Amino acid sequence: MYIFESMKKIIALAIFGFLTFAVNAQEISTDTIAPIEKKVKGLQSVPEFPGGLKEFYNLIVPKIQRSMRYTPGRMIVAFIVEKDGSVTEITTIEGINEKFDERVREIIAKSPRWKPGEQEGKPIRARYRIPFTFR
After folding, report:
1. Cα–Cα distances in Å, from 121 out to 9, 13, 25?
2. How many CA atoms lie within 13 A of 91 on its CB side?
3. What distance separates the 2 farthest-apart alpha carbons in the chain?
4. Model confidence pLDDT, tens digit, residues 22-61
5. CB distance 87 to 56 below 8 Å
């Protein structure tokens, strides 16, 4: 009988411990997610190149191919589309080689103005990442 009572206490403590952990885990994840939802909530539109991304690629890629020889590969470029649609702070996240990456950044810097992203109907600065694959 004593062993049975001890087992009941151990099981009760295990359940209590599990429930305590489960409740704390829910509180942590709720706090972590809430600020992210608030940041994204008011976003209405992302930056857009006039004519869309296909038009952007059609403008940029031929200039890159004409300007220099390159090694086939993939690169990712990030930049800021300002409130006025200009492109600034161009950085290479994943590149092919330094000389080639620099040339791509120069060509992107000379691209026409983008339609800026909007939040609550007002233009905003927005970070934009774009991949390029050269074959």
Report:
1. 60, 55, 37
2. 7
3. 88
4. 333 333 222 322 333 334 455 578 899 999 999 998 988 8
5. no
pLDDT tens by residue, 62-117: 888 787 777 788 999 999 999 999 999 999 999 988 988 999 999 999 999 999 99
φ/ψ of residue 116, rounded to 5: -70, 160
Instruction: Specify whether the CB–CB gap between 52 and 94 falls below 8 A.
Output: no
Gyration radius of the chain's alpha carbons:
26
Give the tokens for residue 131: 């991949």
The structure tokens listed for 108 are 């992107």
Between helix 53-67 and helix 98-109 the angle, nearest 10°, is: 130
Class of domain 45-134: alpha beta
CA distance 60 to 111: 8
Q: Where are the alpha helices (DSSP H) in 1-135?
A: 2-41, 53-67, 98-109
